[in-house]
Amino acid sequence: MKNIFLLSIVLLSIQTLSAQANNNGYGIGSNGVQSDSRLIDLFENIKNRANSSTANALNKTKGSPYFEENFQKAQVEYFGNVLKDEIYLRYNAFSDEMEMSSIPNPKSSDNILIKNNKVSCVMDGSTYRYLGFIKENQPPSVGYVKELFKGKVFSFYERKSKAYMEATVARTSLERSFPARFVDKTDYFYSIENGSLMEVKLSKKKISSALKSYSGEIKSFLSNSKMKLKNPEEVIQLLNYLETI
Prior knowledge:
- This protein is α+β, with helices and mostly antiparallel strands and 245 residues long.
- It is built from six helices and eleven strands.
- The chain is flat.
- The protein starts with a helix and ends with a helix.
- Mean pLDDT is 81; it is low at 1-48 and 50-54.
């Protein structure tokens, strides 16, 4: 889809390239994501997402690849510049892509926002970033995360995704058949002083272990608040407290 929005992105990317020429134009950020601003990346990331056969298969899957079906008006920050274009985004939690449109309420879109840690967006008051993260017992990965808390020392993120589960056929009368379906997943990550994003389970034990350098302060906070840190709102209150001591 060639339109005014894409043209402005190209012009802005040329300006970015010129400004970064003395810095080699790319590098590896603290979160392990390549921040390569070369023009070729722009076109490789704004691309057709799925062929017709893949789309037909997903149409037969129970559930949706989206947590929010509608496109939402978004503010996009592109390499330090807030774009002034009318931009509408929808997060595809299965493919981990921000589907992009220049008009409101499109039925679908074959364009996606460039995947880069220097490109972020705000939808419905929430900031989404494309960052590196580390899950327990897994190699480092990258993907979209929602910023829940950002302080001078601590950061806290949520990653909601959709996993595809193939259909299963019951082999006996005691088993059940299941259609192909999407399964929701939610993971949480923390960062200290802009370091790597590390997964953390929401519980007093897990969070106290992850932030063991602050064990005394956490123990005091929990003693006074009676919180169990089993939801993100309570974790945010704890991080706010740690930021003030």
